[in-house]
Write a structure and sequence with these properties.
CATH architecture of the largest domain: Alpha-Beta Barrel
Strand content: 5-15%
CATH superfamily of the largest domain: Aldolase class I
Distance between the termini: 21 Å
Number of helices: 14
Radius of gyration: 19 Å
Order of helices and strands: HEHEHEHEHEHEHEHEHHEEHHHH
Helix content: 40-55%
CATH class of the largest domain: Alpha Beta
Length: 333
Amino acid sequence: MLREGPFRTRFTELFGVRHPIVCGGMTGVGTAGLIAAVADAGALGFLTALTQPTPEDLVREIKRVRERTDKVFGVNLTILPTLQPTPYGEYREAIIESGVTVVETAGMNPAEHIEAFRAAGVKVIHKAVAVRHALTAQRLGVDAVSIDGFECAGHPGEDDVPGLVLIPAAVNELHIPVIASGGFADGAGLVAALALGASAVNMGTRFMATNEAPVHARVKAQIVANDERDTQLVFRKFRNTARVARNAISEQIVEISRHPDATFDDVAELASGVRGRARVLRDGDMDDGLWWVGQSQALVHEVDDCASVVRRIVDQARDIVEHRLPRLLAEPS
């Protein structure tokens, strides 16, 4: 019989959280209310640093989380090329000076930030989309890697490798804990990830459809209504592939991109992140901007609070391990 209590993995032991579940950084979504609720549910949530306009705003947002929970939480620092210079070093120092104990890096190579985080005793999880990138992060000294399969929302890279292959491929090459990301929303997915050798799962889409997520109710309802076909890959032509919700804007971007001479400038206004966050996530105009969602939306059947979501996933996983799987090994009658 499975012992009562939570699953214990290298991830839960290393980061001091109750459940092997992560809510990774989500631009415009990873704010104090959601992240505090994720932490109270026993999972590890990440504030999204660049959702805050300045490093000083990030410091205040970290304080708001601490006013709501005494549990472990982290901050995501996504490093991307931008038209306007981003003071990544100042955001990094804001994270360190605020006493945050775990950081999720993503995007470009985080080498210039790793040494400072490690010197301050901050544990680092780096999000990667390929085994070769995960190995680079391991060599840089990160504590764990979150590996994004092709099913994920956001940028899955250009290799198109699904999690069922990518996760064990990463586990076989790495000696640090691996967090499985992309396509996870229920207990069966958690069990599958653990069986593939991962130490935890990362979920974004599932946590968007929670009461605490700071997005319009129509966004949450759309996630519940959508199935696995209701995402679209955009920016493939520009080798910056992104998985987003299928809507009028994503369809328009794909159509424009089919032109042989199309450049990103031709779709930039449609693809504006500011537009998506304001018109879709904030105002609920579902066809007036790009918004990120993964194929896991097909597994999201209700909007609920974070505590209930995490508890349900863990209970489903425990039931599968304790009852469904052992029956497969039963002696023939």
